Amino acid sequence: MRGVRISYLVEYPEYIPQLAQWLFEQWGSVLGEKTLEVRIKKLKAHMNRDKLPIAWVAHADGQLLGTAALRVHDLEGREDLTPWLGGVFIGSDFRRRGIGGALCAAVEDAARSRGIQTLYLFTLDKQAWYSRLGWTELCPCVWHERSGDIMYKQLQAA
Fold first, then answer.
1. In this model, does residue 154 exceed pLDDT 90?
2. In what order do the strands lie in the sheet with 146-154?
């Protein structure tokens, strides 16, 4: 997709309402989020540049396309693994255009620049997609009674 930019969420707070709606619809019921405001509060905690959690947004021509985050922890019970790529989400109208891969690469670059050597993620059903991006399955895991996998990626020094 032409003209796609990846920026820190803190630079584009106007995208928070749409982002919150997308993420609430996708994961709110699984996470037990009762209101959209709960998701907005979580997003506001990601409005950082220099400390985790940090969220990025993909956007073009004033339109939000997707998001991804770098977090200290992203899976309850696996605090031994850190940090995590999390919250990867692309709006349904913008999928299959390379935006998700670009967001993941931006998070990986940010992690690498912070001296992070290994990143982790959890996915319910996108194992094949992440494998194509260089991720390796570590182990199966259950998240809110749903089976998925923890994956990891060794980051090469910049």
1. yes
2. 5-8, 54-60, 63-71, 84-90, 118-123, 146-154, 136-143
